[in-house]
Design a protein that fits this description.
The complex is a heterodimer of chains A (378) and B (222).
Chain A lengths: L2 H12 L1 H37 L3 E5 L3 H10 L8 E2 L1 H7 L4 E12 L2 E6 L1 H8 L3 E4 L7 E4 L1 H7 L6 E3 L14 E9 L10 E4 H7 L3 E2 L7 H8 L4 E2 L9 E2 L7 E2 L1 E6 L2 H14 L3 E4 L1 H44 L1 H10 L3 H38 L2
Parallel strand pairs in A: 4-9, 6-8, 8-11
Antiparallel strand pairs in A: 1-14, 1-15, 2-13, 3-4, 3-14, 5-8, 6-9, 7-8, 10-12
Chain B lengths: L1 E10 L7 E10 L4 E5 L6 H9 L6 E6 L2 E2 L5 H11 E4 L11 H5 L13 H13 L15 H13 L5 E5 L7 H18 L2 E5 L11 E6 L2 E2 L1
Parallel strand pairs in B: 3-8, 3-9, 6-7, 7-8
Antiparallel strand pairs in B: 1-2, 1-4, 4-5, 9-10
The chains are: A alpha+beta (378), B alpha/beta (222).
């Protein structure tokens, strides 16, 4: 070990508190812009991949960002509904497959996604890792992360969240029977609860069941129940009134069979169907990320100023430290130590602080890269 | 051993105006014990620094161990200082972030061709034992008394077996008893190793212990 390195490391070890504060300050200053860059890139990549894999989304006219974010990433938003018949409209003429989606309710904060399970699973490549697909009204299959977070598996039940606590005429929450857990896909599907459209409409109060005749003393007890549950005994009593084609969907994912079909369908929905819009998800997400990157540029400028301020403060600390250590440098000089070795010692100390900080910041940014998908939850 | 001939040294920008140290001739033999006395500001420390090669004269010759220091480049003067001279300062000047052992061995970390080997480490231990610090080798400097610190500084000055020990008022920061004990230690160790001793002092009571007393006053040496 060279004398300069020896003296520098001994000094840092002895003054470990001061060294740790300097390393922490520089690490945080470096980490902030790195973290933002890592997170924005991860966000962009994840959003982009999902959007690129979704050719077209059709839904109610309104905010296109909300519609795409809800249909693709199950993000809550004020999105209007379209009639269920819109899925059939998409499939008319055989130009496309229309996958209906109704994303409106939650179960213990996990989004409940009502869809045509077979078509959606085929489109997104979902497979059941444990249990089976729902085959009966009131059954659900959980995304991998949702099952892990809620600690649920096949055979367990999951109650949907109350929609309006103070409305006495409210729809009762539905106790869903978990019949399967999906294999992880590292996509928003992992944190969702999938049910059939009919189950979803049941949660929304568009259908109901009739209880068998009951004794008076049981009536109060049943009325006070906190949730409705579909069982093999009562499933036949559940039914929907009115026109099923008019029941609500939040969106339809449309898979055109060709570019020509896509053009025709886009024109049909955007121009010939009132109150409906057809969107190209990659375009919408590019617009959205464009906004994010514009904001990021502002943060980048801010970080540059923070970096400059930290650099100046670090310079001040180093200068003050050098001043405080004048006697030490004089002792070394009197003993016969060369000026170069003294400069080397101070440079190594500064280099170690900066190097350690940079390594820590890069390590943390690397960890963030691995954790970002889970944290972002897109 | 030490020979200064027709030496002149000037501080041009001294706070108290221009100052010149004049040494017409000064010769100190090997193994001798010399005290340098004189009032503050008379040039005692300047004389010591000229002998150590820290300063170089504007005129004249400073020869130490048959080597004229003025003719050597800075790097070689530093090397000579590290290898053949030990220095003890008035204000002790130990590195607070090194332990007692590491402070004693410090000259081995500063280049100068000194090799930190087992023998050097054993010698550090032996010196520390000799001055009563054997059980405090791993201790931090700020845990030591002033007297103990000066003993560490003496060990540091002697660790590389120097031929010349230069001490700049080594006892002035110590109380009377500790000062006496410290000076005894310096004499004992110097005698044991045959080291030439040059000590700057204000204390007239210790002068009789030296072979020779050099007076410095107003820049002149007699």
């Amino acid at each position: 070990m060279s004398g300069a390195f020896y003296l520098a490391t001994r000094y840092m070890r002895r003054h470990r508190g001061k060294t740790a504060v300097m390393v922490a300050a520089v690490t945080l200053t470096l980490l902030l812009p790195l973290a933002v860059t890592v997170l924005v890139r991860a966000y962009d990549r994840q959003l982009g991949e999902r959007a690129a894999a979704t050719p077209m989304v059709v839904g109610a006219a309104g905010n296109r960002y909300d519609l795409v974010l809800q249909a693709l990433y199950f993000r809550a938003g004020r999105v209007g509904t379209v009639p269920a018949s819109l899925a059939d409209d998409a499939e008319r003429d055989g130009m496309a497959v229309g996958i209906p989606l109704h994303v409106r309710y939650t179960a213990q904060d996990a989004p409940v996604v009502g869809t045509d399970l077979a078509e959606y699973a085929a489109f997104r490549g979902l497979t059941v890792a444990e249990g089976d697909w729902p085959r009966m009204l009131g059954q659900a299959v959980l995304g991998h992360d949702a099952a892990e977070r809620l600690g649920l598996g096949p055979g367990d039940t999951l109650t949907t969240d109350q929609q309006n606590l103070y409305n006495l005429a409210r729809n009762m929450p539905l106790r869903l029977r978990v019949v399967g857990v999906l294999a992880p896909t590292h996509s928003p599907d992992d944190r969702a609860v999938f049910v059939s459209l009919r189950t979803c409409w049941l949660i929304g109060g568009h259908g109901h069941g009739h209880a068998p005749e009951i004794h008076d003393d049981e009536a109060l007890h049943r009325a006070a129940r906190l949730a409705v549950e579909v069982t093999e005994d009562n499933v036949d009593s559940f039914h929907f009134h009115g026109d099923m084609d008019a029941l609500p969907l939040s969106a339809v994912i449309v898979l055109p069979d060709s570019d020509k079909s896509r053009t025709i369908l886009t024109a049909r929905f955007n121009q010939a169907t009132p109150g409906v819009q057809a969107l190209d998800p990659p375009t919408v997400m590019d617009e959205l990320m464009g906004l994010v990157f514009r904001v990021k540029r502002f943060f980048d400028a801010n970080f540059a100023l923070v970096l400059l301020a930290t650099g100046l403060l670090l310079g001040l600390v180093v200068t003050l430290s050098l001043k405080l250590r004048t006697a030490e440098r004089r002792t070394l000089h009197l003993l016969g130590c060369g000026r170069w070795l003294i400069v080397q010692t101070q440079a190594i100390e500064l280099g170690l602080v900066l190097g350690l900080s940079a390594a820590l910041a890069c390590g943390l940014a690397g960890a963030l890269t691995l954790l970002a998908p889970r944290w972002l939850g897109v | 051993m030490i020979e200064l001939t027709d030496v002149r040294f000037r501080y041009d920008a001294s706070a108290s105006g221009a100052f010149e140290l004049r040494v017409d001739r000064l010769a100190l033999g090997a193994g001798s014990r010399t005290a340098v006395v004189g009032p503050s500001g008379s040039g005692k420390t300047t004389l010591l620094h000229l002998i150590a090669g820290i300063l170089t004269p504007v005129q004249g010759r400073v020869v130490v161990n048959q080597e004229e220091l003025g003719g050597l480049p800075d790097a070689q003067r530093r090397r000579a200082r590290l290898r053949s001279m030990g220095m003890v300062f008035q204000d002790i000047q130990l590195l607070d972030y090194l332990s007692v052992r590491d402070n004693i061995l410090l000259p081995y970390r500063l280049g100068g061709g000194l090799v930190l080997d087992r023998e050097a480490k054993d010698r550090a231990e032996s010196l520390a034992n000799r001055v009563g610090l054997g059980d405090k080798l791993g201790r931090a400097i700020d845990k030591l008394s002033q007297g103990e610190r000066q003993r560490v500084a003496i060990c540091r000055a002697l660790i590389a077996r120097p031929e010349l020990l230069l001490a700049d008022e080594p006892t002035s920061a110590l109380d009377a008893d500790t000062a006496r004990a410290t000076l005894n230690l310096v004499f004992e160790l110097a005698e044991e190793t045959g080291t030439t001793l040059v000590v700057l002092t204000h204390d007239p009571s210790v002068l009789e212990r030296f072979d020779r007393v050099v007076h410095v006053d107003g820049g002149g040496v007699s």
